[in-house]
Specification:
By secondary structure, this protein is of the alpha+beta class. The chain has eight helices and four strands, in the order βαβββααααααα. β3 and β4 form a beta hairpin. The longest helix is centred in the middle third of the chain and has 22 residues. Bound molecules: glutathione (GSH).
């Protein structure tokens, strides 16, 4: 498989999941700024949507949308228990988290990276993201991970978007559970390996 990614972008989530899953893959850099691969290929010819992540399967099929990609990967290795079994209530709980992160956090926080976003807009997005993260912080009370004491594919997604609070100026210093979650995630070998591979860690 090939994972098309850009350093530190939302593609870090499936990148971590690939490493947690222990599945062989080739990371392919697709800059979100230039929309070009390192060999000059126009990324729109690979993903007409223009964005990362994209997972190219061994049979050539291409899968987009982070929440779909991470579920596909988890279902490839059920023995790793990265996601509850399909059809169970726990799976819907996982999907509840993935959808919350993608629609309520990812797009709001990510929007602040848009150079065309005016300062007023950033202020609104910052406050909105902070209140949603405050809610996440409350949900993490007494838990190691979003789904409880077991790691799941929702966790790298939250970790990735919560990392964006620093460059976007969202203050999470008072969110102790979220801070502890970020530190717990950062200590996982798969997270460190993915971050090193993306040049985010030495
Ligand atoms: N709906 C997509 C959104 C992916 C997305 O927003 N990717 C960003 C990076 S975090 C990107 O590649 N932006 C560049 C662009 O849209 O051209 C998903 O959840 O996978």
């Amino acid at each position: 498989m090939k994972l098309f990614y850009s350093p530190g972008a939302c593609s870090l989530s499936p990148h971590i999941v690939l490493r947690e899953a222990g599945l062989p893959f080739e990371p392919v850099l697709a800059s979100t700024k230039t929309h070009k691969l390192q060999d000059g290929t126009d990324y729109y010819t690979i993903n007409p949507k223009g964005y990362v992540p994209l997972l190219e399967l061994d049979d050539g099929q291409r899968l987009t949308e982070g929440p779909a990609i991470v579920q596909y990967l988890a279902d490839r290795v059920p023995e790793k228990k990265l996601a509850p079994a399909n059809g169970t209530m726990a799976r819907y709980r996982l999907q509840e988290w993935l959808n919350f992160i993608t629609s309520e956090l990812h797009k709001g926080i990510g929007g602040m990276f848009n150079p065309a976003m005016p300062e007023d807009g950033k202020t609104v997005l910052r406050a909105r993201a902070a209140s949603k993260l405050q809610w996440v912080d409350e949900q993490l009370e007494g838990k190691q991970y979003l789904m409880g004491d077991e790691f799941s594919i929702a966790d790298p997604y939250l970790f990735t978007v919560a990392n964006w609070t620093k460059p976007t100026g969202i203050d999470i210093s008072g969110m102790k559970n979220l801070g502890a979650f970020q530190a717990r995630m950062a200590a996982r070998p798969a997270v460190q390996a993915a971050m090193k591979a993306e040049g985010l860690l030495k």
